[in-house]
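Why do we bother with a discrete structure alphabet at all? Because it lets us treat a fold like text: something you can write down, compare, and reason about line by line. To make this less abstract, here is a complete entry for Ligand-binding protein SH3. Read it the way you would read a sentence in a foreign language you are learning: slowly, and without expecting to understand everything at once.
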Amino acid sequence: MTTEPQPNQSPPEPTPTPRPTRRLTAPRLPRSAPPAERPASRAEIDELIGALGDPAHPRHAEAVDALVAIGAAAVPALCNVVGPDQPWLAVYRATEALAQIGDGRATGPLIAALKHQNANVRWGAVRALTQVGDVRALLALREVARSDQGRTSWGESVAGAAQSALDLLSRRSIWAQSLELIKLAVVSVIFLLSVALAFGVIGALRNELDQFGRYVPGQTELPTLVLPTPRPTATPRRPTPAANQTPAPAVAQPITGTALQVANVRPLPGTNNQPIGRINAGDEIIFLARTANDQWYLIRLGERRSPDSFIANPDGSGAGWVNRALVSPPSADVPVQEPLPLTAPTATP
């Protein structure tokens, strides 16, 4: 299916080649400790920045991962690349690196990138702002969700991604305020208990000092020292291995992967149907099948997932189809399965 360019969207660019990226944790408060950063020279950072938008560069494929490993030191150079007038491929891959670093200094340049002519870049900027989690982006994301009609070259709606980001950031803001109120209440209670305990200890100490050195016949008792009696300890017996143990049958391991960004889950492969769920960056997914052209995977959610991730398939299977560009490659070969057409439910007589 072809997509006609919208007024604020440039002609669709070729889909960026999917590549494995490091696993992202789902956004949450408070943030977990960032990974260790490796030192890098200014010349190396400039070389990696130049390789982002140059497919012929020898370090093009590894540029994003290398910049993410460098971490905060690479943020200023990445922010200089992210702009509405920069080449689309360099800006798109820069937003991918900024999303994984999660540095708040990138909020302003990422907001500016929301005005880029290319829909892939605007979608990448929305994803990066979701990972950074700065509430300053709420107004810009509302404008994108209301007026952006563009779609990425693999069929994802920019406005839909912006709306998902708004929902997530709003929930995070409410949780943050709630956590601050709870922390304030706990600290206040602990302070009051500490003050009351301190007054009690001071009063008891004052009474003890007043009675120190006084001996009242019949009232003053000398303390007695009682030594504990040691108890014999039993020597634990080592368990003997059972004879002729039957090995347990091997259990087939599921084929797993990771969601690379916020994405819709659909009942059939393709974008001409309504989503039945959503996955978030870092969610564990289990691959069930793939299409014959390797463009779509049938998945279900694993145990490690974001609280707002879900797949509500009408058939009750808890599975759905997602584009291969939005998830990491599977850990093993996935069987081919042709999707069955959706059937409308029949009325009960």
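What the structure line is telling us, in plain words: Helices lie at 42-52, 63-70, 75-81, 88-101, 107-113, 119-132, 138-147, 158-211. The beta strands are 255-258, 263-265, 277-279, 284-290, 296-301, 310-311, 320-323.
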